[in-house]
Amino acid sequence: MKFKFLKKFMIGDKKDIGGFTLIELLVGLSVFVLVVGGIIGIFISVIRSQRQVLAEQEALNQLSFAMEYMSRALRMARRENGNFNCLTTDFNYENPSGISSIQFINHLQSDDCQRFFLEGNTLKYIIGAGGESEETLPLTSPDIEISQLKFELKGQAKDDSPESDSQPRVTIFLEASAPLKMKLQTTISQRNLDI
User: Fold this and answer.
1) Are the C-beta atoms of residues 153 and 103 closer than 8 Å to each other?
2) Element (H, E) at 94
3) Three-state secondary structure call for residue 190
4) Of the candidates 140, 144, 12, which has an alpha carbon nearest to the alpha carbon of residue 66?
5) Which of helix, strand or coil describes residue 124?
6) Is the pLDDT of residue 2 over 80?
7) C-alpha distances out from residue 12 to 7, 88, 92, Å
8) For the segment 30-68, what is each residue's pLDDT rounded down to a tens digit?
9) Cis peptide preceding 168, ω within 30 of 0
């Protein structure tokens, strides 16, 4: 009798051998699929958000670089010395084709004639504008759509106007629309004063 009890206790009764029914397996599998699906959805959402933030950061980096590059170059502008190889007037800057471009002589780069302008939706610049060694280069990638570029010139005229006593300065306004809408503006005056 003792052995029958131990045998029944150790091995168990055939009727007591448990398992899962088909319904229990389906319910468990459904819960598992829902949990894993939710986790995957959250993961995909985080990846999309990260891509968007990285694209916005890249656009901001490129636009900041472009503004800084233009600012540094425009600070080094000098007056036309009378040869009129670059500018048509005795000014520091001029807008050769409207307010969306600016041309000047860069004192630091061997007195090269340079021009910044908008072509299509890309900000570009020309080194050696009008010369034989003219080279056009982009300042922004085609991924960034620049919708507006303006150069406003002040203080260049030496006449009786109140602003004629002020130093020549340029205000740059840049608006980009992709991947996000940004507006940047800065004002620059030349480093070497015209006195």
Assistant:
1) no
2) strand 93-94
3) coil
4) 140
5) strand
6) no
7) 7, 105, 101
8) 999 999 999 999 999 999 999 999 988 998 999 999 999
9) no
